[in-house]
Design goal:
The structure holds two protein chains of two kinds. By secondary structure, chain A is α/β, with parallel strands linked by helices. Chain A has one domain: 3-Layer(aba) Sandwich (Rossmann fold). Chain A contains 13 helices and ten strands. Chain A has helices at residues 4-10, 16-25, 30-42, 70-84, 88-96, 99-111, 139-151, 166-176, 181-185, 236-246, 265-287, 290-302, 306-315, and strands at residues 60-63, 66-69, 128-133, 157-163, 187-193, 196-202, 221-227, 247-258, 325-328, 333-339. Chain A has an eight-stranded mixed beta sheet with strand order 6-5-4-3-7-8-10-9, sandwiched between helices. A two-stranded antiparallel sheet of chain A has the order 1-2. In chain A, β7 (221-227), α10 (236-246) and β8 (247-258) form a beta-alpha-beta unit. Chain B is mainly α. Chain B folds into three domains: 11-74, no CATH class; 88-133; 137-311, Orthogonal Bundle (Tetracycline Repressor, domain 2). Chain B contains 13 helices and no strands. The chains are: A alpha/beta, B mainly alpha. The interface between A and B is large, with 39 and 34 residues.
Amino acid sequence: MVARPALRRAIPSSRTLLHAESRILRSSFSTTLQLQQKPNNNNNNNNSVPEYAIPDPARPTHFGFETVTEAEKRERVAGVFTSVAESYDRMNDLMSFGWHRVWKDHFVASLNPGFSPLTSSSDPRAPQHILDIAGGTGDIAFRMLHTAHILNGNPDVRVTISDINPAMLSVGKQRSASLPASQQAALSFLEANAEDLTQTKPLGANQVGYSPTTGVPDESVDLYTVAFGIRNFSNIPAALREAYRVLKPGGVFACLEFSKADKHPLFNTIYKQWSFSAIPLIGQLVAGDRDSYQYLVESIERFPSQEDFRDMIVDAGFVVGGQGYEDLTGGVAAIHKGMKPRRK
Amino acid sequence: MMRPSSISLRRPARQILFSSASTIRAAAPVPTAATHRSLSTSTSTGSGCTCANGSRRPQVKQTQKLQQQQQQRQHRNAYHSYDHPSSSAAFTPVEESILSAAYQHVPSHGFTPSALAAGARDAGYLDISPTILPEGAFALIRYHLVKQREELAARVSELFGGEGHVGARPGLSEWEIRGRVEAVTWERLSANAQVIGRWQEALAIMAQPSYVPLSLKELALLSDEILFLAGDSSVDPSWYTKRASLSTIYAAAELFMTNDHSPEFMDTRAFLNRRLREVNEVGGVFRNLREWVGFTATAGVNVLRSKGVKI
């Protein structure tokens, strides 16, 4: 609740009334109360989607430290990732000293995809559909497949990698060639805008075996993941609502993203120094592209704090467990999880 | 509500003592906002502080609403209130629904992700749903600890013959309190019986470094609850020593119980009794030792004086 005012500042809210109501009703555990009311408000009825969660190409948003329109941000982000796609993985290693692998491993391990209880009464290995948004180069998707197929012995887990950027997707497609055939078969690639998953395009739409554009249907996904992608979205509330739409009741939204290390001032100072001076320089030397990496660090700086982002997730109708997020490396990155509640 | 006891104290001191004891469990030495609030309320209303305490509260609540809510959230368990039982907010409704369903699977699956996933299915969620619980399988252990602690009050009041309010009562002698501590502790240990086959693995999880602080906190809350329910109202340094020694004994007895195959855990009960008696004996030995040292020293000085040494 402490973070609410900050959220309201961050998002121009047309739902102040709802906030006020829930404040009156609330017990000491206000978030839950609100969660219970939300689903009816948000989802069954599209009219009540708040205005800020409807994508509008003309609405101002930020691109790093600049203010641009949503449409312009989409184009410029596309430009950034097209230019860094080839060197993306090498750059990640250099910028984070390889630590991003630890984060990603932990992220996937904490989700434990493909895990089922071995009960005698039901099918012991339930199929799962994982949608990896902004998963271009496949880092998360390949780990998911490994955990599900090999560690949990559940071959009925499919992963769909979705990215708005075909350049990133083709890098992922290339890398997937080294996977075992069974895992390749469980993998599909999708070119889509996360704010509107009804309009999708399979990668290389001419290829045999791909269905034509159908979009991701309602309530078809068990696990929706987005790792280091959501801060690049033009309209984050819209993307969260789209995630809510495609998830099955009980499905989990999981997000790994850079966050704020404000709790450790000294560490934060060093981290900020590193990210603002060293990362653009490394980008210039290794990838030959300073501006793209300048944008990356600025976009990290502009992304909401753990609490604010948690409130945005709750606002989209998800329920969270505990405080709703987990800090990694003192808050440099954070994992946010939310579950779509069951229909009443 | 507490009845005023017959101890004669000066009036303001008595008011403070009673009001704080009725609101704050055995005057928990943490100076919370709640402490200050109840003190100021009772002193301003003068006599009859026990009733005023309850009726005055809403007014105070209005003036300090926001501040108070935040503080109550932080210090939810730092004091015991008869009028305002702390809300059971350890788990959100969704967590509660998953965990309560998963708890049914503990005897067969243990405190494991399997039990959580099976519970999630029963509650109408997916296999993946329990991953939103930040502590994983430990959440299930915490659920057991919290639920059993919360249910203890009802079971104890049944045990002591439905006295209405359990807890601090001035009439109890120290000897009676000891007996009640034993009974309440045993009541709590018995609640582990249904999951006892899985309790060793739970203890192993609780001993993992990241869960140790939460486990210890839960243990402290439990020993506090047991002493409160047993009617202990000490406000001296023994407040700490009693809780510390009871925590140790409880943890030891719990561990003993995991290997106990005697009918109805008789051996565990005997073990518990021996440990509790030892604490009292050790306490007695220390008291006697102090007395003996004091006596010998005085006597020695007197002997020396009788020999003409100028002391």
